[in-house]
Amino acid sequence: MYFALPEEYRISAPDELKNRIKEAKTKLGNSAFILAHHYQRAEIVEFGDAVGDSFALSKIAAENANAEYIFFCGVHFMAEAAEILSTDKQTVFLPNPLAGCPMADMAEMDDVLLAWETLENFGGDKKIMPVSYMNSTAALKGFTGEHGGLICTSSNADAVYKYGFSNREKLFFFPDQHLGYNTGIKYGLKPEDMVVWDFSLDNGGLTNEQLDKAKIILWKGHCHVHTNFTAKHIEETRMKFPDVKIVVHPECPHEVVKEADAFGSTSFIVNFVEKQPPGSNIAIGTEINLINRLGMLYPDKNIFELSGTTCPVCANMYRTTINDLAYCLENFKDIKPIQVPEDVKVNARIALERMLAVH
Ligand code: SF4
Questions:
Q1: Most exposed among 16, 189, 265, 325, judged by the fewest C-beta atoms under 10 Å?
Q2: Whose CA is nearest to atom 6 of ligand 1?
Q3: Domain spanning 7-101+317-339 has what CATH number?
Q4: For residue 292, how far is its CA from the centre of ligand 1 (angstroms)?
Q5: Among 97, 67, 24, which residue's Cα sits nearest to residue 331?
Q6: Homologous superfamily in CATH for domain 226-313
């Protein structure tokens, strides 16, 4: 896909763009609603009518039936989820259409369907429940709903596992192996209860015996931002700041999660930081824009990024600029909105509504 902003929006000064966004918002009044993910740039978050993680924002999108136009400052799968949950009278826009999520793209439908064909021999729908992380394509959400499964986010993964295991014997978890594994351990499973399905290999690279025994089959996907962190970063941080509190996201590998003081969703991290007393040293293992914003929000706490050396930026979240937002708000009538095909939408909505019900 090719996307280029008209020159007028590329060369305008930040103050002018901000004024144009404010004016466009005022003109649109209650008919427009801007959702901003926590990982967005600070200048985008400033314009969010709601700011949150993907779970909170999908709930808000579902509840906000009055807003005719939803501008989702996040990545593609989030805008798709909002579109699936919105009413027919609402239209969803992604201000930068190139903002995708590499992790969501790791579970391609052809590979998923091929894997499911194999898993039919291990009980299929009768025994195995597909569970897809919010960070997945609409097509995968549709597949999940069609096969009796549901969506989870890092906020509600525990409740989703409980629901899954009360209804079926096994879970097939997409696409983030780390969130799936970390939630499995928290749920009380043992490492040997979980296997990773490598979609580039026959039979997922697993023996029939492994598939038969597994309680969770994890798709081999990951987030390159969160797999940056290592146990060594934790060790070094503790040596430097013996009183440090370390909080990380569950998309980090288990070796990191198990050494941290706490782990949880983006909202969990925000609350964790808020609760620490002034003067605390707090190291965070997640996306850098959120860490920087928390640093600005709590200048009385020493908040820093856990690795100290890598810059864990989500380049896709970072794509959306105030230039894009100004253009989108002023020209949305000529911009292609996010559209999920009706046949996919029906089952994807079932999977998302199940998620909203079990939280
Ligand atoms: S931080 Fe990772 S999972 Fe989240 S949008 Fe970026 S690439 Fe996807």
A1: 16
A2: 314
A3: 3.40.50.10800
A4: 17
A5: 24
A6: NadA-like (3.40.50.10800)
